[in-house]
Design a protein that fits this description.
Elements (H helix, E strand, L loop, with lengths): L27 E3 L6 H8 L3 H7 L13 E3 L21 E3 L6 H7 L4 H7 L13 E3 L5
Antiparallel strand pairs: 1-2, 3-4
């Protein structure tokens, strides 16, 4: 998909967290004419889900030119959940229908990688409602 092109993508097909050693865009990015959240995520080494959650964007298809986005995982705001002192979900979380590991990680102050490793999840896109997850660093 090129910058400026928009598509409606089902949640199950959205990009998942990618592990990057560097922050291609730095800690922030200013939206320019023709940008899409998808293109920004790709060029900044993030995901659409992470950008939307970090910047409180309710509709990923509607972004405003001139808005300064915080790039998750870059700069001073990039602290990972395992070093955070807040455990917003407590030591465990029960997966509900419609949950994604990405959304659970965000709401519980963790990362997808940490949740997957702690709970022996090999496929982050395949989780089951009713499963009780251990939240890393909150026990």
């Amino acid at each position: 998909m090129e910058v400026g092109c928009y598509a409606s993508v089902p949640e199950a097909l959205t990009y998942r967290r990618k592990l990057h050693a560097s922050c291609a865009c730095g800690p922030s990015y200013t939206i320019k004419p023709g940008d899409s959240l998808d293109a920004i995520a790709k060029s900044c080494g993030s995901t659409v889900d992470d950008l939307a959650a970090t910047n409180n964007i309710p509709n990923i298809d509607i972004i405003t030119v001139g808005t300064v986005l915080t790039i998750p995982g870059c700069g001073s705001g990039g602290q990972t959940a395992s070093t955070s002192s807040s455990c917003t979900c407590g030591p465990s979380y029960t997966i509900k229908p419609g949950d994604s590991l990405d959304a659970i990680a965000k709401s519980c102050g963790s990362t997808v990688a940490d949740l997957a490793a702690t709970n022996n999840i090999s496929n982050i896109d395949l989780i089951t409602a009713g499963t009780v997850l251990t939240i890393p660093g909150c026990g």
